[in-house]
C-alpha cells in the first residue's frame, strides 16, 4: 500500500507501525515543507528564581505520580547510584534526595527546559545530581561519555509520556485546554528539522492520518477525524492546538462530543486520543520507550531495581511484555498482538533470564491520590529486579 502525500508519495504499510514514524518523517523532510505560521515553539518558558528554590523547601511544580509506590519499590540505599530517566519537573528526584541524601542521582531528559531545572538542582545539591540531556535512545552513549560502566547503576526510574511541565506550557502545543502553536516536540528546538504536529496534520494524506490515530490513539473514529482535518486544512493550515481541537469536535454531533468519558467516567474532550496519537508519533515515543528499557537493563547492576510508570495501554503493554522477556526486536511487525510461542527468553525453570517481578500485578494510584492529582489517574507502575 502506498500513502499518497500531498507533495510526494511515500511507501508504508496500511497499518502504521512503530518504524513507520521514521519513514513518514523522512517523507516530511523530503517534501520541503515550508514553515507554517505559528508552528514553531515559543521561547523557553523557564521557571522564575522563586520556583527554582532549594530542594528542601521547594513546592513541586506538580505532584509526582505514584510517589510512595516508586520510593518503596526502588528501595534506594545510602551510597547508591540512581538514574531518573525522565527528570521532568524533578518531583521524583527531589523526593529520592530528601529520603536518602547520600545518593548520586543521574537526571536524564530530552527536554532542554527540564535539564535547566536539573542543572539548577545540581548546583543546590552540591553536585549530587548529574544532568543528562538526551533521549532514551542516547542514554548508553551519554553514560559512556561520563565513564559510567554498564551494570553499575543501582536503581532506575522511567516515567514515560508527557510531563505536567510540558502540558502546562501553552507554547509547547501539548495541551487541549490551552491555545498554543501545534508543536508537541519534546526536544524543543534541539532538532530543528524534526517535524512538528502541525507539519503532520497539514502534510500527510487522509489515510496516513487515520492510521496514526488508530495505531497510536486507538481512536475508533480515526477516519472521520482524518477526513475533517483534510477538509479544514484546504481552507487554512491548522497551526494551533485549539484550532485542531475545534476541527475534531466539529466532525461529530454535539451529543457525541459531550458523551465521551475517561476511565473514571468523567467528561473527556473528543480530541484527547487524537492529540495523544500525534504526540506519540511526533516524538517516536514507543520506539524510544523500548530503547529506554533496553538501556536500563544494560545499566542496572545485578539486584538493581527498575520502576516504569506508563499512562496508556500501548506503553503499558510494551513494558509488560519487555519484562516478561518477549522478543520486541522487530517492533514494526510486532503490533502488540497476542504473544507468540517461543518468543520469551527464559531459564530452564521457566523464569525470565533478565527480570524478577517485584509484584505480579500492575500498581495503580489509590483513590485519594487520584483526587489530589487527577492527571495521574491513568498511571500504571511496573517494578522488577534485575537478575
From TrEMBL:
It is found in: Mitochondrion matrix. The keyword Isomerase does not apply. Belongs to the methyltransferase superfamily. RsmH family. It comes from the Eukaryota. NCBIfam families: 16S rRNA (cytosine(1402)-N(4))-methyltransferase RsmH (TIGR00006). GO terms for cellular component: mitochondrial matrix. It catalyses: cytidine(839) in 12S rRNA + S-adenosyl-L-methionine = N(4)-methylcytidine(839) in 12S rRNA + S-adenosyl-L-homocysteine + H(+). Residues 367-387 are annotated as: Disordered. GO terms for molecular function: rRNA (cytosine-N4-)-methyltransferase activity. N4-methylcytidine (m4C) methyltransferase responsible for the methylation of position C839 in mitochondrial 12S rRNA. Involved in the stabilization of 12S rRNA folding, therefore facilitating the assembly of the mitochondrial small ribosomal subunits. Keywords: Methyltransferase, Mitochondrion, Phosphoprotein, S-adenosyl-L-methionine, Transferase, Transit peptide. GO terms for biological process: rRNA base methylation. This is 12S rRNA N(4)-cytidine methyltransferase METTL15. InterPro entries: RsmH, SAM-dep_MeTrfase_MraW_recog, SAM-dependent_MTases_sf. Residues 377-387 have a biased composition (Basic residues). The keyword DNA-binding does not apply.
Amino acid at each position: 500500500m502506498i500513502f499518497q502525500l500531498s507533495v510526494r508519495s511515500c511507501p508504508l504499510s496500511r497499518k502504521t507501525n512503530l518504524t513507520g514514524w521514521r519513514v513518514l518523517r523522512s517523507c516530511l523532510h523530503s517534501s520541503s515543507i515550508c514553515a507554517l505560521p505559528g508552528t514553531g515553539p515559543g521561547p523557553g518558558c523557564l521557571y522564575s528564581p522563586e520556583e527554582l528554590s532549594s530542594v528542601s523547601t521547594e513546592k513541586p511544580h506538580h505532584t509526582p505520580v505514584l510517589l510512595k509506590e516508586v520510593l518503596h519499590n526502588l528501595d534506594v540505599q545510602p551510597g547508591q547510584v540512581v538514574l531518573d530517566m525522565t527528570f521532568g519537573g524533578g518531583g521524583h528526584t527531589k523526593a529520592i534526595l530528601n529520603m536518602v541524601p547520600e545518593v548520586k542521582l543521574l537526571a536524564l531528559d530530552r527536554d532542554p527546559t527540564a535539564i535547566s531545572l536539573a542543572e539548577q538542582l545540581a548546583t543546590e545539591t552540591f553536585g549530587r545530581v548529574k544532568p543528562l540531556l538526551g533521549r532514551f535512545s542516547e542514554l548508553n552513549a551519554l553514560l559512556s561519555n561520563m565513564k559510567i560502566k554498564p551494570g553499575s547503576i543501582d536503581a532506575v526510574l522511567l516515567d514515560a509520556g508527557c510531563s505536567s511541565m510540558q502540558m502546562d506550557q501553552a507554547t509547547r502545543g501539548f495541551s487541549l485546554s490551552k491555545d498554543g502553536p501545534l508543536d508537541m516536540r519534546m526536544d524543543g528546538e534541539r532538532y530543528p528539522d524534526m517535524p512538528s504536529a502541525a507539519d503532520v496534520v497539514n502534510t500527510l494524506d487522509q489515510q496516513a492520518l487515520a492510521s496514526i490515530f488508530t495505531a497510536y490513539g486507538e481512536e475508533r473514529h480515526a477516519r472521520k477525524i482524518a477526513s475533517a482535518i483534510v477538509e479544514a486544512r484546504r481552507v487554512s493550515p491548522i497551526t494551533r492546538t485549539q484550532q485542531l481541537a475545534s476541527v475534531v469536535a466539529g466532525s461529530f454531533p454535539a451529543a457525541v462530543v459531550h458523551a465521551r468519558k475517561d476511565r473514571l467516567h468523567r467528561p473527556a474532550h473528543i480530541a484527547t486520543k487524537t492529540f495523544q496519537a500525534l504526540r506519540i508519533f511526533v516524538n517516536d515515543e514507543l520506539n524510544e520507550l523500548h530503547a529506554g528499557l533496553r538501556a536500563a537493563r544494560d545499566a542496572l547492576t545485578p539486584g538493581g531495581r527498575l520502576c516504569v510508570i506508563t499512562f496508556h495501554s500501548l506503553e503499558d503493554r510494551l513494558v509488560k511484555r519487555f519484562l516478561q522477556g518477549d522478543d520486541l526486536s522487530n517492533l514494526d511487525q510486532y503490533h502488540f498482538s497476542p504473544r507468540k510461542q517461543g518468543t520469551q527468553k527464559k531459564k530452564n525453570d521457566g523464569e525470565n533470564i533478565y527480570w524478577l517481578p517485584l509484584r505480579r500485578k500492575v500498581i495503580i494510584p489509590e483513590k485519594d491520590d487520584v483526587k489530589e492529582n487527577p492527571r495521574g489517574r491513568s498511571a500504571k507502575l511496573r517494578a522488577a529486579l534485575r537478575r
